[in-house]
Design brief:
single chain; 109 residues; 6 helices
C-alpha cells in the first residue's frame, strides 16, 4: 500500500468515525464512539513521531490537530463525564467532517 492510499484509507475511516459521532443520540453513545486521539484512525497511525506524515499536519503545519474543528469539539467536550446531549457540539462535529472530506479531496487530486 502506498503512503497516499494509506492516507486516503485513514481519512475515510476518520470521516466514518466522525459521522458516527454526529449520529449519536445519547451521551453513552458518545462515550462508546469516543472523540480523542485514542479513537481517531489518523492519530492511531501518526500521533507522536510520525505526526508530520498526517494529512491534517500537512494542511495545518502544526501537530496535535491545532487549527482544526477538532480542537473546538475537544475543548467543548473536555468534561464529557457530565455531558448532556443538548450540550454536544454537533456543529463542531459537522465542521470536522467537512474538514476531513476537504483533505480527502486534496489527497485524491
Amino acid at each position: 500500500m502506498t503512503a497516499s492510499s494509506k492516507r486516503k484509507r485513514l481519512l475515510k475511516e476518520s470521516i466514518e468515525h466522525w459521522c458516527r459521532l454526529l449520529a449519536c443520540t445519547t451521551p453513552e453513545e458518545v462515550h462508546i464512539e469516543g472523540f480523542d486521539a485514542d479513537d481517531c484512525p489518523l492519530c492511531l497511525e501518526y500521533l507522536g513521531e510520525n505526526c508530520h506524515k498526517c494529512p491534517v499536519f500537512g494542511w495545518t503545519g502544526v501537530a496535535g490537530c491545532i487549527n482544526t474543528p477538532y480542537r473546538e469539539v475537544s475543548y467543548r467536550l473536555s468534561d464529557y463525564e457530565t455531558l448532556h446531549l443538548e450540550e454536544f457540539p454537533f456543529d463542531g462535529v459537522a465542521k470536522e467532517i467537512w474538514f476531513l472530506k476537504m483533505l480527502l479531496q486534496k489527497e485524491e487530486l
